[in-house]
Amino acid sequence: MMISDEIKRLHELHQAGALSDAEFEQAKARVLASSTVNLNKGDGTLSGEINSLRRSRTDRWLGGVCGGLAVASGVESWVWRLVFVLFTLTFGFGFLIYILMWIFVPEE
């Protein structure tokens, strides 16, 4: 659930009378504080995700690139394998990208 959705839900509860003014403010402060902690933990940016990318030692067929992408992105590794195969067959550069990632992405 996104932060805006949580705050909207809190506002609806407050409007319905389920939350007092003080409870609403406390809950909103908790939601905002937890979102700040989560953003600082993972950086919340693409560069933070790229810096956390590592090749997998356990989920691998060749170099562990797809397993590492699966952990970093939350998408299954078989989907990444399919993407690389499709890019190789259609555009011809999927294998090159895989090899470059195998070389430059560190292992876990």
Description:
The structure is a single chain. Helix 1 runs antiparallel to helix 2 and helix 5 crosses helix 6. The relative contact order is 0.10. The protein has two domains: 3-42, no CATH class; 49-104, no CATH class. The protein is an all-alpha fold and 108 residues long. It has six helices and no strands. Helix content is 70%, strand content 0%.
List the topology elements:
Layout: H1 3-16, H2 21-42, H3 46-51, H4 65-73, H5 77-90, H6 94-104
The biggest sheet, with number of strands, parallel, antiparallel or mixed sense and barrel status, is: none
Q: How many domains would you count in the coordinates?
A: 2
Q: What's the overall geometry?
A: elongated
Q: Could you give the order of the helices and strands?
A: HHHHHH
How many DSSP helices? 6
Q: What is the helical fraction, as a range of percent? A: over 70%
Instruction: Give the mean pLDDT.
Output: 81
Residue share in β-strands: under 5%
